[in-house]
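Help needed: design a sequence for this.
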């Protein structure tokens, strides 16, 4: 074991349910490897990490079961699929109607790629994509067509400075290695 692998305490993560998972440096190395090379395979990962194949498979299963790993699917780029316009929409909903019915409506719209209940001005925040500005109008009309939505405000993305990412969290989530 390399000195950088000596961890004082594993980090506990509350996953999709209420399960608590300890994420250690081997998990971090494994997740980083699969993030950079998603088609690597368990056997090659075990060789590169110098651990048993069964260890890699058990770790992957545990990370998936606990909700740390949500998907092994491809990371799709909406621009490459013909959706170069990205916008963020803040929705205000009718009080007393609840967020869930609006969320169910939003889930039926393919161009809504994220939706979150928020604090501050507005009730829900959505990330949407469109084929053009004219198509964005169609998407916004579809979003706003639900009777529980009272008002919306939209901002269009001009450039993306930081793509959605999760791996940097591993570096700050792990405790520092033990000092020799």
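Sure. Designed sequence:
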């Amino acid at each position: 074991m390399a000195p950088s692998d000596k961890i004082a305490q594993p980090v506990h993560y509350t996953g999709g349910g209420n399960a608590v998972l300890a994420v250690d440096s081997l998990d971090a190395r494994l997740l980083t490897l699969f993030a950079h090379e998603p088609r690597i395979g368990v056997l090659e990962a075990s060789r590169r990490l110098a651990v048993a194949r069964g260890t890699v498979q058990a770790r992957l299963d545990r990370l998936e079961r606990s909700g740390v790993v949500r998907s092994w699917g491809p990371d799709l780029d909406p621009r490459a699929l013909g959706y170069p316009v990205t916008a963020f929409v803040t929705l205000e909903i009718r009080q007393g109607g609840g967020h869930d019915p609006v969320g169910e409506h939003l889930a039926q719209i393919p161009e809504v790629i994220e939706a979150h209940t928020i604090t501050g001005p507005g009730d829900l925040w959505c990330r949407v994509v469109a084929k053009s500005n004219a198509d964005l109008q169609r998407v916004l009309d579809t979003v706003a067509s639900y009777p529980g939505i009272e008002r919306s405000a939209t901002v269009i993305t001009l450039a993306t400075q930081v793509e959605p990412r999760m791996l940097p969290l591993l570096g700050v989530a792990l405790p520092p290695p033990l000092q020799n």
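Residues 1-20 have pLDDT under 50 and may be disordered.
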